[in-house]
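In this supplementary section we document a worked example of the pipeline. Step one takes a protein sequence of length 216 as its only input; no multiple sequence alignment statistics are reported here. Step two produces a three-dimensional model, which step three serialises into structure tokens for compact storage. The input and output of this example are shown verbatim.
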Amino acid sequence: MARRINLVPQSERARTNTNFAMLGIVAACIVVLFGLGLAYYMFSGSLNDKKQQLNDLTVQVQALQAQVDSLAKYDALDNKRKGVEQIVAAAYDGRTPVSEVLDKISLVVPDNVWFASMQLQTADPNAKPAAGAATAPSGTFAITGDTYSFEDVAQFLVRLQLIPALANVDLQSAGTPSGNVDPSKDIKGFSIQATLNNTQATDTPLPVSKVEVQGQ
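The serialised model returned by step three reads:
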């Protein structure tokens, strides 16, 4: 059998030996690179999913913002309604129940007393109460009339003082008839003034169920 002769020079023979350490390093690098590629692929897909979710949320937020913007006018109308309700409530709390006052006056007028004039003037509902007063005056009330005796004038004056809505009832004048009367009749004229106070409770509900406000 022929003998195999190694024709590679002695100095170059070491290079033909298998370097297992280098192969291990190369293999490890390949595994690492493969792992990095796989991780990149997986994270890239996850990132795309997150971006898509973010885009979807952005679209939803924009849609919700558009709805909020469209409802803003209703919020402004609601604020305007509340402001009008406060104004109405303040005016109602400070109102003068004229019908009730006149009704009570009609009940205390003596039979032989008649009016020549009657004036009722309301005050600013935002007026502040005077010192020592629980409520601010709601206005003034004045009556001129005629009767046949001073006793009737005094009786009418006392009866007016019994009406809770009237205060500071004062006889301004008495004696001279208020108008053209028969000189043969003994007619006594009189003039009475009073302060008109609001006796309505502050928690009295508004006479309307709601206040409607129209937008511009």
